[in-house]
Amino acid sequence: MESFEFMSPTKFILQEDADKLCGQEVKKISDVCLFVHYGDDFTYKSGLYDRIVESLESAGVKYYELSGVEPNPKVSLVRKGIEICKAKNVGCILAAGGGSVIDTAKAVGIGAKYDGDVWDFYSKKAYPIETLPVGTVMTLPATGSEGSRGSVLRNTEKGESADVLSDLLRPIFTLMNPELTLTIPKHQTVYGIVDMFSHIMERYFSCSVDVNLTDYMCEGVMKSILVNSHALMKDLSDYNARTELMWSSVIAHNDLLGAGRKQDWATHMLGAQLSAQYNTVHGAALSVLFPCWAEYVFKDNIPRFVQFAHRVFNVEVDFYQPEKTALEGIRRLREFFLSMGAPGTLGEIGIENDEKFRKMAEDACRFGNIGGLKSLDADDAEQIYKMAQ
Amino acid sequence: MESFEFMSPTKFILQEDADKLCGQEVKKISDVCLFVHYGDDFTYKSGLYDRIVESLESAGVKYYELSGVEPNPKVSLVRKGIEICKAKNVGCILAAGGGSVIDTAKAVGIGAKYDGDVWDFYSKKAYPIETLPVGTVMTLPATGSEGSRGSVLRNTEKGESADVLSDLLRPIFTLMNPELTLTIPKHQTVYGIVDMFSHIMERYFSCSVDVNLTDYMCEGVMKSILVNSHALMKDLSDYNARTELMWSSVIAHNDLLGAGRKQDWATHMLGAQLSAQYNTVHGAALSVLFPCWAEYVFKDNIPRFVQFAHRVFNVEVDFYQPEKTALEGIRRLREFFLSMGAPGTLGEIGIENDEKFRKMAEDACRFGNIGGLKSLDADDAEQIYKMAQ
Fold first, then answer.
1. Whole-prediction pTM
2. ipTM of this complex
């Protein structure tokens, strides 16, 4: 096991109507909050907007709004939120939505306590040392941002996606009402599942040894995601499966499963470039790229891929030809994604030619080689994009 | 899954020489601390005492000492610690040791912020609303107190053991240097393993349904404890196994594995009475009682005991006679404890007759029936003590 420091101070509340607690939770922190949301049909028509406003008002919290967050959220909207916070003396940020809303709120939080431009944190010119507290009402189990120490933004002027990682970015509270997830459309549900499953694989595919505690936990959470995904694909309104996946999203990415392990993250870096260049949905990028990445690197750590195949996907081990077992595990991973309707090739997500592969590969490696299990340079990255065609 | 609220704000640091960070961590909180420890041979001869004192001094922290903590720690010593805190304006408590030291420190923390007697919290006359922050240097993976929300004390005047549960009691930091655990004698190592394994079973044996995420996680952590315990029984100085068990102790009891589940805890209540009446070591009491409890209750939830047998102990399932599979799982649990040299009967821990069984049974149930999987009254409790003879 590697040395580690781990903290996850977020207070998680999972219950019916958990969203209605937002007023009282915000009030413990501040009388003035910025309410960040998508401003989309779901927010208004599901009654979420009204319930949150009512909860804030009845708790005596004054609120300002920042709406219109898009998938792959933009730094431009974050800057507007920061202006509001600075002008209106906001003391707490409430994010009601999925990962894009929460990542936006986190960026506003650190930006509001900083004199320079918030992109400085994402371009690694600055490191956050203070933040406004961020609480969340999560509506879309996927990115795990509701419990994580990260935020990912897109800078459209620069054509870049980048992240910030700091324990300061962990939400102070996260309210989970499973009912809010019952009407998530199938494609978003599937991308969420791919995303959380990938968050575990990024930690699982490690070259660290003597990590059987976290191995078993990773495998357990992946098996649970498989079981609940199968249930959900039969009935999208399965309340129990939705509830388990809501909590899985947190566990997959609050880094408990990564404590004491070197982690990989190459696939996320490769996927981020698809989002930056083509605005590809994060889960779709991962669905296409993860099996290709695995096929590209598995020979560097066959025992790990055999263990994955056997323990997660119940593949019978061929001890004479472990390579075959490893490949069968990767085949079942791809099959799992495809069986839910997630894409398997770049063509399926509208990327018809390789004109940007080189640029994406170089951008993915702009801070150095990527990948903890196998170190990849821009040539490797380009190969993986080609395999995904 | 049941509704839940879960938070685990403790900052955990696991690394070589983690104990030497105590000065800087305390200094972030206060300039004056109470240093709580056993004052035993290990504390002084291992160099732990010197390293902590040096770390505190070089960080400029003034410290007072409370030493002499015993297993099944007494409220009388806690009262002395409270006096020191009140008199000397202590702002932080540093506990260096195992569960008894940490539980003592937690009790001092809440007692120092309370005008009445600290036992009020344990007798449920009062509920803590404030505490001095407690940091820990943990030396004995077992009780999980280094990450938990509980503290257990013994009141020798009243002949009672009792606990307090509150998120206020979660340590603010926990420093884990695996090297400190390399010299733990075999019997203490074994009792620690039994304790952490039991903490998971108390959560695993639940009547809650639709909990496969936490089921898989519980099973994974139990399997990891089995693997590392076998390694350690072969070589008590196995650094990797010690390290994994150190982190397992935290995961087993910070209640992540219990989130969304009704929990049992009958065996801990029964065991606490053995400690109160006979000063039985906690792990020894659990080793004797857990298999007996399981045999007494398993018919009320055969599928759960079958799942335990199959997934944790690799018992082949007899689908025609699931009861046999359930019993085989319990047999292997007992075998696991006995194989490490832990006791299997009350006789082995020096309890030769049944004269106190009735009193212990009634005391265990003094706040009402015990047990979440099967509700037990004093008659049931007495039966289980008899089975353990």
1. 0.96
2. 0.95
